[in-house]
Design goal:
Blueprint (H helix, E strand, L loop, with lengths): L1 H13 L1 H14 L4 H18 L7 H21 L8 H20 L5 H10 L7 H20 L1 H9 L1 H6 L4 H23 L1 H18 L3 H25 L4 H28 L1
Length: 273
């Protein structure tokens, strides 16, 4: 068991920390589905590489996938206006649907399109290699340092957007930088875990952290703890019962979300009484 599970477990320990942090920004901005849309755009780039019969582990494939996500970053930063009759979630939903349909069309021309569609959605983290884990972790550290250096601007745009406009900050530019760095993270992780697992790691721990704590530090700690438990427990259930790893982890996170929500509701009720 340990020979098979070691590097997937390492991936579940080393990689989610930045996803939880970015997920809190996403939830705070109220654009929940932008992560799955960006992940799908990265998958569309990977599907393009599949159709071109390129090595999926090559830097060229990563560059194509990243280019697609950067296009998404530009679109979403441009449509994130201060006031608009069209909610940005509508644009995000359209981008997701079109990217998904385009990926299906591309893979329909590939020799093993059906299998690639499955991998695109749920991935197979059990097959992750040591090189993939360390390469992804190094990239996450670089993005994390970038966010640390620009923490003030990113926090202002995400947590107090109206004040960001009032102070004269170029909100659209900082939106693009956020979405671009977000796209780098999503592109690197979606190749390992698939679209659904990317969405789960970004949103579920962030929602639990925001629901249980007031400060960013506590939200991060709760989110990191939940992501660790959910990832390792999901991998264990996947191995124990011979289940697809990505789907098992996603469902485990769903169960944890229900438990956390129930516990939070019971705690609030007891405090009121």
């Amino acid at each position: 068991m340990w020979e098979v599970m070691f590097w997937p477990c390492v991936a579940c320990v080393l990689l989610p920390w930045l996803l939880v942090y970015l997920g809190i920004h996403v939830v705070q901005r109220g654009i929940i589905f932008i992560d799955i849309a960006m992940a799908q755009m990265a998958s569309l780039g990977i599907c393009t590489a599949v159709l071109l019969q390129m090595d999926l582990e090559s830097s060229a494939t990563f560059a194509i996938a990243l280019a697609f996500t950067l296009v998404g970053a530009a679109i979403f930063s441009f449509t994130g206006k201060r006031t608009s009759q069209v909610p940005q979630e509508a644009v995000i939903g359209i981008a997701y649907v079109v990217a998904t349909a385009a990926a299906v069309l591309l893979l329909s021309r590939a020799a093993e399109g059906d299998e690639e569609i499955k991998n695109m959605l749920v991935g197979n983290i059990l097959l992750v290699s040591p090189a993939e884990v360390w390469r992804c972790f190094g990239l996450f550290v670089a993005v994390g340092l970038f966010h640390a250096l620009a923490r003030k601007q990113f926090m202002l745009v995400s947590f107090d957007r109206e004040r960001a406009f009032q102070t004269g900050l170029n909100v659209r530019w900082w939106d693009f930088l956020f979405y671009a760095s977000f796209g780098v993270v999503v592109t690197s992780f979606v190749r390992i875990a698939g679209v659904l697992l990317v969405f789960t790691y970004l949103i579920v721990p962030a929602v639990c952290g925001i629901g249980l704590a007031e400060t960013l530090r506590k939200r991060l700690l709760i989110g990191w703890g939940l992501s660790l438990v959910g990832g390792i427990l999901g991998l264990y259930l996947s191995f124990q019962y011979d289940l697809p790893s990505g789907a098992a982890i996603v469902c485990t996170f769903g169960g944890l979300l229900i438990l956390v929500s129930g516990a939070a509701t019971a705690w609030s009720a007891s405090r009121r009484s």
